[in-house]
Design goal:
The complex is a heterodimer of chains A (377) and B (248). By secondary structure, chain A is α/β, with parallel strands linked by helices. Chain A has two domains: 2-38 and 179-371, no CATH class; 47-172, abc type-2 transporter like fold (3-Layer(aba) Sandwich). In chain A, 68% of the residues lie in helices and 6% in strands. Chain A is built from 15 helices and four strands. In chain A, α1 (2-17) packs across α10, α8 (180-210) runs antiparallel to α12 (289-307) and α11 (261-285) packs parallel to α15. The longest helix of chain A is centred in the middle third of the chain and has 31 residues, at 180-210. In chain A, 36% of the residues are buried. With 248 residues, chain B is an alpha/beta fold. Chain B folds into two domains: 1-81 and 158-248, Rossmann fold (3-Layer(aba) Sandwich); 87-156, no CATH class. Helix content of chain B is 36%, strand content 26%. Chain B is built from nine helices and ten strands. Chain B has helices spanning 46-53, 75-81, 97-107, 112-126, 141-152, 171-186, 198-201, 221-228, 233-241; strands at 6-17, 20-31, 35-40, 61-66, 69-70, 82-86, 159-163, 190-194, 206-211, 214-219. In chain B, the strands form two sheets. A six-stranded mixed beta sheet of chain B has the order 6-7-8-3-9-10, sandwiched between helices. Chain B has a four-stranded antiparallel beta sheet with strand order 2-1-4-5, with helices on one face. The longest helix of chain B has 16 residues, at 171-186. The chains are: A alpha/beta (377), B alpha/beta (248). Chains A and B meet through α1 and α9 of A and α2, β6 and α3 of B.
């Protein structure tokens, strides 16, 4: 065991002497979390709203004030004609406009009901649909209250009228629609895979490439110790990064963690071990650092981004790709983390994910050890 | 102890890879405290033979004992009693001289309280004490090889295997390196050296020459020159290599 600890110490020295790489490893998750959390956000903000109304009704003015008060929208001003609204939108002055026809308010209280238009700049379709959703919610809510207050929305008076028709949109699990929630498990999946699989495999293969492996194999260190000793520092770093990400998520991004911390950390640990297994497996089948980097990068990292549901929902992919996504280890981790962290479900709903990850970990480790023994002889 | 005179004894050692016989029935022994030169062209089977002696490779047939242990069944014990230095690898560049020495002292189980004194002693002998905390990558190649040699004998092995130890350094550095080997031998360590510098072969007590997996000649440099009527070991090698079937 003494030689094993001498070896573990050496691995730590390698990592700590290489300050730049260490800085990248620890800094990268922080930067990514902050970037994804704040800058790259799919939320809408500072949407400029215009108004075209033929009447000067107080209700409409109050509605615009209400819209202006929300954190998403800013009321820019009133326009005189549809042509002017169009012009303002082309200039980039407004992103959306509410158009009320003449006599809108009286018509609303009438039997026929009233119609209004919501015009949105759909250059960016995602933003446009979010804007429509948010705006219509505010508008419905506002007029619903208006009519209820006037006493006209009563069932006996007007069974199909205004308030009773208000659609009730509810965004579950992420009520403020904060996109950062979704990115957190994705980034964890990416970073941990990067450190555990890529760094470990490159570090083992480097010993082969420089010839030091040969010297080590002649020494009394058992070959399996050489590999295990490589994993320990990366395991420790991964745990530190895991803690770092969780703290950033909770205290900087203020994501409310719904589920159990214990299971969240356990799932992460299983994933870390799985990634280490992948790293060890890759190192046992390749001979050069370049190939190890390529394999880890192409086969394990890029698909994490594309197929783990981090950037694109898996459900909206073609069936063939959905099947492919099932074999991406990170996909199971990200799904499990989302369920525990954001949905806060009890652990029995993530047993499938946990079992699949554990199974994969055993598989990769076994394959790596078998491969590794082969090479020695 | 019966094994005392010979630290390496090999009989009819053979290694085949499929139809290819890399090492073909070699028999030789190495005496305690001598410098044994293991010569041969590239592809003659030197590396394969050395891999079997160091416990990296299992022989197809034949027997061998290194430091008194059977190469078939006791390779783990052999590894504890030998040192090894390869040409390709000279220490971890990103670690300091001291880190490297501590690592191998740890791997070979040097008692903790002796590690520091032994490192200081070895560095003092190399006159490199000032470089103790320098990263190895900043040192010249000749120094690295000298340090690598010290690392290989840090646990006072019975035999040190040196695989092309002086590749890529200038003649002056090579001479200094051989002085280190002599010092180690004076302490009772046996040196098993492969080299393709024929002038270095002259420094050995005895040399063997491998051709096509066989040992075609084994004797002291002087006797070999006399036997083949040659003026240098290089000439002896040429005469023997002429009959080789495997190309370089």
């Amino acid at each position: 065991m003494k030689e094993f600890f001498a070896f573990v110490r050496k691995e730590f020295l390698h990592i700590f002497r290489d300050r730049k790489t260490l800085l990248v490893l620890v800094g990268l998750p922080t930067v990514l979390i902050v970037l994804f959390g704040f800058a790259i956000s799919t939320e809408i903000r500072n949407v400029n709203i215009g108004l075209l109304s033929m009447d000067d009704d107080i209700s409409i003015t109050r509605l615009m004030q209400k819209i202006d008060r929300s954190e998403y929208f800013t009321y820019v001003g009133k326009y005189a004609s549809e042509a002017e609204v169009d012009e303002a939108m082309r200039r980039g002055e407004i992103d959306a406009a509410l158009i009320f026809p003449a006599g809108f308010i009286p018509a609303m209280f009438g039997a026929e009901g009233a119609e209004m238009a919501l015009v949105v700049d759909a250059t960016n379709p995602n933003n446009a649909s979010m804007e429509v959703m948010y705006l219509s919610r505010i508008v419905y809510g506002y007029f619903g209250d208006e009519m209820a207050g006037s006493g006209i929305g009563m069932p006996s008076d007007m069974p199909a009228g205004g308030a009773s028709l208000t659609p009730n949109l509810r965004m579950l699990y992420n009520p403020q629609l904060k996109s950062s929630y979704n990115f957190v498990p994705g980034i964890m999946g990416l970073i941990l895979m990067l450190i555990c699989a890529l760094m470990t495999s490159v570090s083992i293969v480097r010993e082969k490439e420089t010839g030091s492996m040969e010297v080590l194999l002649v020494s009394p260190v058992r070959p399996i110790y050489i590999v295990l000793a490589k994993m320990i520092p990366y395991f420790v770093i991964s745990c530190a990064i895991l803690l770092n990400i969780l703290l950033l998520t909770i205290f900087v991004l203020k994501v409310p963690v719904e589920g159990s911390f214990f299971w969240m950390i356990l799932v992460s640990l299983i994933y870390i071990i799985l990634s280490l297994g992948i790293g060890m497996f890759v190192s046992s089948i390749v001979k050069t650092q370049i190939i190890a980097t390529l394999i880890c990068g192409m086969i394990f990292l890029i698909p994490v981004m594309m197929f783990s549901g981090m950037l694109y929902p898996i459900e909206s992919m073609p069936v063939a790709l959905q099947w492919f996504a099932q074999v991406i280890p990170a996909k199971w981790f990200i799904e499990a983390m989302r369920k525990i962290m954001i949905e806060g479900v009890p652990v029995r709903y993530v047993t499938t994910e946990i079992l699949i990850m554990s199974g994969l970990a055993v598989l990769f480790f076994t394959a790596a050890v078998v491969k590794f023994k082969d090479r020695i002889e | 102890m019966e094994k005392d005179e010979f630290v390496i004894e090999v009989e009819h050692l053979t290694k085949r890879f499929g139809n290819f016989t890399a090492v073909d029935d070699i028999t030789f022994d190495v005496r305690r405290g001598e410098i044994f030169g293991f010569l041969g062209a590239n592809g003659a089977g030197k590396t394969t033979a050395m891999r079997m002696l160091t416990g990296l490779s299992f022989p197809t047939s034949g027997t061998g004992h290194v430091a008194g242990f059977d190469i078939r069944t006791q390779s783990e014990l052999i590894k504890k009693h030998i040192g090894y230095m390869s040409q390709k690898f000279a220490l971890y560049g990103d670690l300091t001289v001291n880190d490297n020495m501590e690592l191998f002292a740890g791997i070979y189980g040097v008692p903790r309280n002796e590690v520091k004194t032994r490192i200081d002693m070895l560095l003092d002998r190399l006159s490199l004490s000032a470089e103790k905390n320098s990263p190895v990558k900043d040192l010249p190649q000749g120094w690295k090889q000298k340090i690598a040699f010290s690392v290989a004998i840090i646990h006072k092995p019975e035999i040190v295997f040196l695989d092309e130890p002086t590749g890529g350094v200038d003649p002056a550095a090579r001479r200094q390196f051989w002085e280190l080997i002599y010092e180690a031998v004076d302490e009772g360590i046996t040196a098993f050296v492969t080299t393709h510098y024929m002038d270095e072969a002259e420094y050995c007590n005895r040399i063997s020459m491998m051709v096509d997996g066989r040992i075609d000649a084994l004797d002291s440099p002087a006797s070999l020159k006399e036997k083949y009527g040659a003026s240098s070991i290089a000439e002896v090698f040429d005469i023997l290599a002429r009959g080789a079937e495997r190309s370089e």
